[in-house]
Amino acid sequence: MSLANGRPYLAIPGPSVVPDRVLAAMHRPSPNIYGDDIHDMARSIFKDLLRIAGSTAHVAIYVTNGHGTWEAAIANLFSRGDKALLAVTGHFGRGWAEWARRMGVDVETVEFGGGAAIDATRIEEVLAADRSHRIRAVMMTHVDTASTVRNDIKAVRAAIDAARHPALLAVDAIASLGCEEILFDEWGIDVLIAASQKGLMLPPGLGFVWVSDKALETSRNAGLCTPYWDWKPRVLDDQFYRYFAGTAPTHHLFGLREALTMILDEEGLASVWRRHRVLAGAIWAAFETWGRGGDIALSVADRASRAHSVTGARIGAGGAARLRQWLESTAGVTLGIGLGMAQPGEPTYDDFLRVAHMGHVNAHMTLGALAAMEAGMRALAIPHGSGALDAAAAALVAEA
Ligand SMILES: *Cc1c(COP(=O)(O)O)cnc(C)c1O
Asked: How far is the CA of 203 from the centre of ligand 1 (A)?
């Protein structure tokens, strides 16, 4: 029997849940893109995008997804043959490195595996050995959405400074912006990328790139830069059509305006970060309890290196895939697949899942998803420790 009818809950790490208010804001006739109203709204959006990242520098909006922002960052920073250092903590770091390689960048990767954060001392060593300063940028993911590891951006900046190296710091915050603390100026970030469909609670379709003055300067000599990806007119021009290299993504902008108001002016950024942290803590408590009576474990052992926006876990003997299937067909909850944790054909391929808790997610959605998971484990006779829902509730109350 299915109990899935009712409002479905898509708990995959993007696209995330889109608030009805954001959808309603998009439901309107096309605006005149030559009129003042949309120009004024766009200006307010650029201002708020700087606020949400703690930046006083520049921000560009692209009509693209996260992969497009990868390409934007690479195109504006490098010429063919330039060197990049990529600190990899999962599938998405590997993907960004591959993108840069395919564009002709000489990429050196430092791998930290799929369950641990970047060790900044390793980055410092590599930079210190680069005496001729060939490495133009250190690139990293803040939250790797596949491993669900969260990296310490400040520590990587400190490593660059300690090595007295001029490399820029470029950060993929696609899975964390709007969910976790990010302070662009204070943490010394030069390039930060994000996309609309995760913490910003919009449909996919917009990509964002924050750019420091130093990165802007570097881009003046970037040989890989092409007209569409060039961030200079997008951040410097006062011609409205140049912000978007053509027609503005009008309805996404209406949605974004609403989402930024909800995050910055109504709930407040600090409260948004706190909500994500508390909900994450409830999910960790549940998995830790389940793990005491079964082959179940969180993907990231160190609490301090766990993302607040998405949680990966392993349920042995293919339990993760069976549970996901049951949840979608019987309970109306869709969890994320275990991206990049095992390759298709490997015996452990079906042992991983991810629970997203990014964006428009509250206590009852999180506790409801956990309760549905517990029901699924019972239905499928997946061995698990008892008391997980109590533990989740207790963690939530203690933190909140
Ligand atoms: C989702 C995600 C991407 C890819 O974004 P797309 O919009 O799917 O292209 C890249 N990096 C991270 C960290 C992500 O979470």
From this structure: 13
Report whether pLDDT(181) > 80: yes
Residue nearest to atom 5 of ligand 1 (CA): 66
For the chain, give the number of residues. 400
Q: Are residues 262 and 272 in the same domain?
A: no
- Give me ligand 1 centre to Cα 391, in Å: 31
Q: What pLDDT band is residue 159 in, cutting at 50, 70 and 90? A: very high
Residue to mutate (ligand 1; options 86, 92, 197, 208; most atoms within 8 A of CB) = 92
pTM above 0.85, yes or no: yes
Last residue of some domain: 266, 290, 325? 266
133, part of any domain: yes
Query: Which of 232, 266, 300 delimits the end of a domain?
Result: 266
Provide φ and ψ at 106, rounded to 5°.
-85, 100
Check whether residue 300 and residue 288 sit in a common domain: yes
Angle at which helices 120-129 and 153-162 cross, to 10°: 30
Residue 14 is assigned to a structural domain of this protein: no
Q: What is residue 236's predicted lDDT score, i.e. its pLDDT?
A: 83
Mean pLDDT on 162-184 = 98
14 C-beta closer than 6 A to ligand 1? yes
Cβ atoms of 161 and 171 within 8 Å: the answer is: no
| 148 and 211 fall within a common domain | yes
**Can you tell me the distance from the alpha carbon of 334 to that of 118, in angstroms, rounded to the nearest whole number?**
30
